[in-house]
């Protein structure tokens, strides 16, 4: 089996982070590149449902973006709106992602994991993962779930073979 590199966009949702202080976004960009994929774009938007939805919608429509990973805005404070912004955009939700993320996270932070509303879904053959804002949570999500699911060699199935692939190639 051949590894198929994907083009991945990273969206940091934060009212306070800058490119210099965005540890989670920077971690994801480095992890993406280290895994052999391409971090196509990295953007920071405020915790605003419409700005999140606007940026993600643009990437869903873009032929060169296969995967979107967001970090931040998945909790329960008044400004945490990432799941609310993304859910209407999904053609298909991936409920198992949030369930499995919380199962992995439980081993690290115990019952506090129930305060994470991380989600995933497909829109226009683009897979979208919404992770919490902490770098530890991003590491858990990437290393425990996303990296393997974006590897076209992973069996018995993976998401890499389901995305639209900006290079015109795709699986099933």
| CATH class bucket | Alpha Beta
CATH superfamily: MoaB/Mog-like domain
Order of helices and strands: EHEHEHEHEEH
Classify the beta-strand content into a percent band.
Answer: 15-25%
Largest sheet: 6 strands, mixed
| Class computed from helices, strands and strand pairing | alpha/beta
CATH topology: Molybdenum Cofactor Biosythetic Enzyme, Chain A
CATH architecture level-2 label: 3-Layer(aba) Sandwich
Rg over CA atoms: 15 Å
Distance between the termini: 15 Å
Shape label: globular
The tally of domains stands at 1
Count of DSSP E strands? 6
Question: What does this protein structure show overall?
Answer:
The structure is a single chain. The protein is of the alpha/beta class and 172 residues long. It has a single domain (7-149), classed as MoaB/Mog-like domain (Molybdenum Cofactor Biosythetic Enzyme, Chain A), CATH 3.40.980.10. The protein is built from five helices and six strands; from the N terminus they run E-H-E-H-E-H-E-H-E-E-H. It has helices at 23-34, 49-61, 82-86, 95-109, 135-149; strands spanning 7-13, 38-45, 67-71, 92-93, 119-123, 126-131. It has a six-stranded mixed beta sheet, with helices on both faces. Helix 1 links the parallel strand 1 and strand 2. Helix 4 packs across helix 5. It is globular and about 45 Å long. It starts with 6 loop residues before the first strand and ends in a 23-residue tail after the last helix. The model is unreliable at 168-172 (pLDDT under 50). This is Molybdenum cofactor biosynthesis protein B. Belongs to the MoaB/Mog family. Pathway: Cofactor biosynthesis; molybdopterin biosynthesis. InterPro entries: MoaB, MoaB/Mog-like_dom_sf, MoaB/Mog_dom, MoaB_proteobac, MoCF_biosynth_CS. Keywords: Molybdenum cofactor biosynthesis.
């Amino acid at each position: 089996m051949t590894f198929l590199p994907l083009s991945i966009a990273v969206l940091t949702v934060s009212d306070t982070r800058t490119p210099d202080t965005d540890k989670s976004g920077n971690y994801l960009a480095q992890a993406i590149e280290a895994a052999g994929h391409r971090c196509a774009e990295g953007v920071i938007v405020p915790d605003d449902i419409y700005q999140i939805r606007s940026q993600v919608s643009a990437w869903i429509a873009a032929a060169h973006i296969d995967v979107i990973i967001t970090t931040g805005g998945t909790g329960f404070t008044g400004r945490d709106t990432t799941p609310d912004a993304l859910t209407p955009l999904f053609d298909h939700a991936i409920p198992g992602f949030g369930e499995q993320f919380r199962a992995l996270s439980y081993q690290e932070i115990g019952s506090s994991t129930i305060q994470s509303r991380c989600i995933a879904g497909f829109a226009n053959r683009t897979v979208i993962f919404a992770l919490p804002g902490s770098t530890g949570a991003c590491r858990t999500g990437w290393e425990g779930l996303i990296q393997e699911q974006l590897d076209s060699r992973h069996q018995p199935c993976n998401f890499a073979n389901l995305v639209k692939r900006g290079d015109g190639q795709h699986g099933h």
